[in-house]
Design goal:
89 residues; 30s Ribosomal Protein S18; binds zinc ion
């Protein structure tokens, strides 16, 4: 009979990171090139654990997010980016 429902504040958007303008960084700035060798840029789009950030957080457009994901994966394979970091196990 009793319906247990956990009260969640889902009404408010979670701000995981500081408010960032929802705009694709690579579209707005043509100087930035998505390069699998450029970890300085790629590191802006991965979490501390080394995961690729979702588009809803980064604000990238679909095509650039895809390009970025490919670049990050590529740089992981040549071992200049971590697959995962921070976890002791
Ligand atoms: Zn873009």
């Amino acid at each position: 009979m009793e319906t247990q429902r956990t009260e969640r504040q889902s009404r408010y958007p979670q701000k995981k990171f500081f408010h960032r303008k929802k705009f694709c960084r690579f579209c707005s700035d043509s100087n930035i090139k998505i390069d699998y060798k450029n970890t300085a840029i790629l590191n802006n789009f991965v979490t501390e654990r080394g995961k690729i950030m979702p588009r809803r957080i980064t604000g990238n457009c679909a095509s650039h997010q895809r390009e970025l994901a490919v670049a990050i994966k590529r740089s992981r394979i040549i071992a200049i980016m971590p697959f995962v970091t921070g976890d002791g196990k």
